[in-house]
């Protein structure tokens, strides 16, 4: 009887130790890569540095959006980061978002979206 009780307590104690997987989605960007961005980089050069953007708008190719989300399932906390790059033709002109933007790319004027 005592063995069954200990076995039952052991099983109940393990049921509270459920591990939940963390989920990462989107573009995982490092600040050191964003620091490499400069005005006048071509779209191909930007893809070489950052990879392809998650959001692809077939109608407006002058704005690229890189999205990243991380869900810590055990803490119930979600982190979302966004980087927007603006182009004039094939050349990078400015950037905005949740990362530290290089000074030369900070938006000094409004760009129509």
Automatic annotation (TrEMBL):
Its main location: membrane. It is found in: Cell outer membrane. Part of the outer membrane protein assembly complex, which is involved in assembly and insertion of beta-barrel proteins into the outer membrane. Belongs to the BamE family. The gene is bamE. Keywords: Cell outer membrane, Lipoprotein, Membrane, Palmitate, Signal. InterPro entries: BamE (IPR026592), BamE-like (IPR037873), BamE_dom (IPR007450). It holds the Pfam family BamE. Part of the Bam complex. It comes from Aliikangiella maris. PROSITE patterns: PROKAR_LIPOPROTEIN. It is a lipid-anchor. Residues 26-95 form the Outer membrane protein assembly factor BamE domain. This is Outer membrane protein assembly factor BamE. It comes from the Bacteria.
């Amino acid at each position: 009887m005592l063995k069954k009780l200990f076995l039952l307590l052991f099983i109940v104690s393990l049921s509270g130790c459920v591990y939940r997987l963390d989920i990462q989605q989107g573009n995982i960007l490092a600040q050191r890569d964003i620091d490499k961005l400069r005005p006048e980089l071509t779209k191909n050069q930007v893809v070489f540095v950052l990879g392809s953007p998650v959001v692809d708008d077939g109608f407006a190719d002058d704005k690229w959006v890189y999205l990243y989300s991380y869900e810590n399932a055990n803490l119930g906390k979600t982190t979302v980061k966004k980087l927007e790059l603006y182009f004039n033709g094939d050349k990078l002109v400015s950037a905005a978002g949740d990362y530290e933007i290089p000074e030369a790319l900070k938006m000094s004027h409004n760009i129509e979206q």
